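To the wet lab folks,

You asked to see what we're planning to order before we commit. Fair enough. Below is the target structure as tokens, and below that is the sequence we designed to fit it. If anything looks off to you, flag it before the synthesis order goes out.
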């Protein structure tokens, strides 16, 4: 078995059932970049980044995500359409087929870890069929020092075989692709898809089980940053709500942009060592940190070039609107050393409400915070998906339903406890439409949203007048520095107040209908945090 790269440590994969492989261990980003190009699997862009095409799958496939139902998970996981059970016997048989497929191949192995707080560190070994997949793992997982590899022992494995295709009839999968978590064997197995995000989200899903069940730690699909006084802010939000953009604040240091844990010691730590950002319509003016991070070492996915050049056309979504880039977090200048924050003071729930109903900023009670957290609301805009002709409500429990193995109410109860314990303010931010719904009104100006968040962080809203709006009972500030007063109350921005009231009732009804599946497991305080009208 041959080994290459900067490290001389010998890695055997035989304990996994992989034999005769040529193992390329702990290669540098430059080596992986060059190998991808040499193999004809990617090209270099004008900024030096590597660009690849992930093939048939350009995003996650939630219906092909499974969890092995065994003694560890049987009574704890919230089974259903999100957490689909997979039998241990079927897993073992499929696993053996994948290991046989990988045997004898050139494979790329990386030892890394997740969870930046040393008290919660989890060692993860990635085994990749493709060098670009291994580069993604370098970018996204935390990178141990060379001397830490001497006695490194992996606790979990991420195994990615994009070229393997399952047989649904015999393997128990829905299609030829799959992403399966096995908590007993501590394996995240991904096959039949080249979309790199499946690896990241596999480990994220595992931590969303491990941390609350075993470590008394609240896992969060969020970004987080730290102010000059050491106060930590947390940003929850689904794709397209501005989570990555708004947490990249020049006045604050970034802890991370997607996945964090909140410990019983009241620290907030990043799960990851990098960022995985959307690049659709990316400009240096609007998102300078992301734009400048796309350099040698960064990995772009499913982008197109401007004709006759290797300059990326960020407006071209002919492959997918889900164009992405991964890069190490230190590609951004303004980061929090060690990726750990203390003293959480403010939480922001971001919703891109394309109905134009929600206030641009409002303050939530603990019960409301839990209700909105479980709901995880944003709205799909017309044209973003096939058949979507007008705005549609989109609910994703805990702002990350596809990655939450436990019942959402469990995470919400942890949130309420953390809020009260730390004295945290929770704010609802509408980064969506004002003056009417999509197609009539306009998107809330980014500079206004930034000013409102800054005012909340600086305590400038502590002594202003708040008024409760009548449909959701949200407390809305009636003034905010550097923001026109007329935009703070959304009903006032609509030409027809009757049309606003009708749409507000409709949205409230959608919230109630969505929440029915959570009521059985939610306490009175959470249920009472829902719409009034």
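Sequence we intend to order:
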């Amino acid at each position: 078995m041959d080994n290459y790269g900067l490290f001389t440590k010998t890695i055997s994969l035989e304990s996994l059932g992989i034999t005769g492989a040529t193992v390329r261990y702990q290669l540098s980003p430059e080596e992986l970049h060059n190998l991808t190009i040499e193999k004809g699997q990617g090209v270099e862009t004008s900024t030096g980044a590597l660009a690849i095409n992930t093939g048939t799958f350009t995003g996650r496939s939630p219906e092909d995500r499974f969890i092995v139902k065994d003694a560890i998970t049987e009574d704890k996981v919230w089974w259903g359409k999100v957490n689909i059970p997979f039998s241990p016997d079927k897993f073992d048989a499929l696993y053996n087929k994948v290991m046989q497929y990988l045997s004898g191949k050139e494979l790329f192995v990386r030892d890394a870890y997740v969870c930046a707080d040393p008290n919660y560190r989890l060692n993860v070994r990635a085994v990749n069929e493709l060098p670009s997949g291994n580069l993604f793992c370098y970018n996204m997982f935390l990178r141990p020092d060379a001397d830490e590899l001497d006695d490194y022992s992996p606790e979990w494995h991420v195994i990615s075989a994009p070229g393997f295709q399952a047989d649904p009839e015999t393997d128990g999968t829905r299609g030829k692709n799959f992403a399966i978590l096995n908590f007993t064997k501590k394996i995240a197995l991904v096959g039949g898809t080249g979309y790199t995000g499946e690896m990241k989200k596999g480990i994220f899903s595992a931590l969303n089980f491990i941390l609350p069940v075993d470590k008394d730690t609240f896992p969060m699909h969020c970004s987080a940053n730290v102010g000059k006084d050491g106060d930590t802010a947390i940003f929850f939000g689904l794709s397209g709500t501005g989570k990555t953009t708004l947490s990249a604040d020049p006045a604050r240091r970034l802890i991370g942009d997607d996945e964090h844990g909140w410990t019983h010691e009241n620290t907030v730590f990043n799960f990851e060592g990098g960022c995985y950002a959307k690049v659709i319509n990316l400009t240096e003016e609007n998102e300078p940190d992301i734009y400048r991070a796309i350099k040698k070492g960064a990995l772009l996915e499913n982008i197109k070039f401007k004709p006759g050049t290797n300059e990326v056309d960020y407006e071209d979504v002919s492959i997918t609107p889900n164009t992405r880039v991964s890069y190490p977090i230190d590609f951004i200048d303004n980061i929090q050393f060690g990726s750990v924050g203390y003293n959480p003071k403010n939480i922001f729930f971001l919703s891109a409400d394309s109905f134009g109903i929600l206030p641009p900023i409002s303050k939530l009670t603990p019960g409301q915070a839990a209700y909105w957290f479980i709901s995880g609301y944003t709205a799909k805009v017309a044209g973003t998906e096939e058949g979507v002709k007008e705005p549609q409500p989109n609910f994703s429990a805990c702002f990350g339903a596809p990655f939450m193995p436990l019942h959402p109410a469990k995470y919400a109860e942890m949130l309420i406890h953390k809020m009260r314990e730390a004295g945290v303010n929770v704010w609802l931010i509408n980064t969506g439409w004002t003056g009417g719904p999509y197609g009539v009104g306009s998107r809330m100006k980014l500079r206004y949203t930034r000013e409102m968040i800054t005012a909340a962080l600086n305590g400038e809203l502590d002594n202003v007048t708040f008024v409760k709006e009548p449909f959701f009972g949200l407390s809305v500030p009636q003034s905010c520095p550097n923001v026109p007063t007329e935009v703070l109350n959304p009903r006032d921005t609509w030409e027809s107040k009757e049309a606003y009231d009708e749409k507000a009732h409709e949205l409230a009804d959608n919230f109630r209908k969505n929440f029915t599946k959570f009521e059985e497991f939610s306490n009175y305080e959470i249920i009472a945090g829902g719409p009034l009208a």
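Structural context that might help your review: The chain is about 25% helix and 25% strand. Residues 1-6, 382-388 have pLDDT under 50 and may be disordered.

Thanks,
Computational group
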